[in-house]
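Quick start: load a record and inspect it. Here is General secretion pathway protein H:
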Amino acid sequence: MRFALCSKKGFTLLELAVVVFIIAMLAALVFPAFFGADNRVKAEARKTASLLRYLNDNAISTKSVYPLKFNLADRVLSWQGPDGEKAERLKALTSVTLTSKGEIKEGEVTVFFGPLGIQENLAVYLRDDRIGMTVSLSPVSGRVKLTEGEKQ
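Running the structure step on this input writes:
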C-alpha cells in the first residue's frame, strides 16, 4: 500500500503572522520620519497660538503687563507670566511681524501684553523644508488665527 505524503508547499499561519508583525514594526519606525516634520511645525504653531492667547487673556484679566521675547537667532520664546519666567525653543521659528516694526528676521523682539491686551497686530512665522505656518494675533478681537502656507 502506498500513502501519499503531504506536500509542504505553503506557509503556516504562524510564519505569516511573524512576517506581518515585522513589516508593521518597520512601518511604525519609518512613517513618522516622513510625516514628522509637518506635525512638528503644526505642533509648534499650536503651542505658539496657545501661548499668545494665554498671555493676552491673563494680562487683561489681572491688569498686569507680561513681556514676550522672541530671540530669532536662537529660536527661543521667553516670557514672564503669572506663574513665573519660562522659555520654549521653537525649531521652526523664522520671523515675527509687528505693525509698528514690520517683519523682523533676526535679533530679539519683545512684545508687551498690557491691561488692554496687545496693542498691535502680531504675526509669528514658523517654517521648515516642507510646510509654513502663520500664527497671528489681532489686538481688536484678541483672537489668534493659524494659517497654513505662505505669509499672510
